[in-house]
Amino acid sequence: MTVQPIRLFGDPVLRTPAEPVTVFDKELRRLVDDMTETMIDAPGAGLAAPQVGVGLRVFTYRVSEEEQGHLINPVLHFPSEETQDGPEGCLSIPGLFWDCRRLEHVVAHGQNYYGDPITVVGTAKLSRAIQHEVDHLDGVLFIDRLDPETRKAALAEIRNAEWAGLTPPVVKLSPHAGIFAPGSAGRGSTA
């Protein structure tokens, strides 16, 4: 497993909708393992593939020892309209947090890295993490969900962050090169 560089706010890959996974092979399992290692190292409660420069519908999560895993090609269902408000952050917007409204409960259907169907039921923090990561897969950042006044303040804080404007990381050798690397001609590439 290898810790991967996390793409920061402003990197176009974060605004590009991810492609569905169609091949469940050892490269995909390596990607999930690398993402899990990267998420834990950061540390974070979730990490979507676009955050490591891979345009596939894959995310990992870990909100507690009991609530951790990954989901591929997720589809969300919301059993109620009950909402929660609370601080939310993002590994691609490091060190900054703002209150964000999310739905309290979510049921996420998808696949594991072998292609087997799985369902994850989330409430509270797990629900927030799942919604946040699926937003990443759709090219949406959580700051897009903030009320207009908070969003304006958030963008000002981002502009003044010490990491703002840094050159996106360059991965010289990726274990996913040729298959998952953005810009490659292989399956799952994002142009």
TrEMBL record:
Top-rank lineage group of the source organism: Bacteria
Keywords: Hydrolase, Iron, Metal-binding, Protein biosynthesis
Catalysed reactions listed for this entry: N-terminal N-formyl-L-methionyl-[peptide] + H2O = N-terminal L-methionyl-[peptide] + formate
Cofactor note: Binds 1 Fe(2+) ion.
Binding residues for Fe cation: C90, H132, H136
Cofactor: Fe(2+)
InterPro entries cross-referenced by the UniProt entry: Peptide_deformylase, Peptide_deformylase_sf
An MF annotation (GO) of this entry: peptide deformylase activity
Active site (catalytic residues): E133
Its EC number(s): 3.5.1.88
Enzyme class: hydrolase
Chain's role: Removes the formyl group from the N-terminal Met of newly synthesized proteins. Requires at least a dipeptide for an efficient rate of reaction. N-terminal L-methionine is a prerequisite for activity but the enzyme has broad specificity at other positions.
Family: Belongs to the polypeptide deformylase family.
NCBIfam families for the chain: pept_deformyl (TIGR00079), PRK00150.1-3 (NF001159)
Protein name: Peptide deformylase
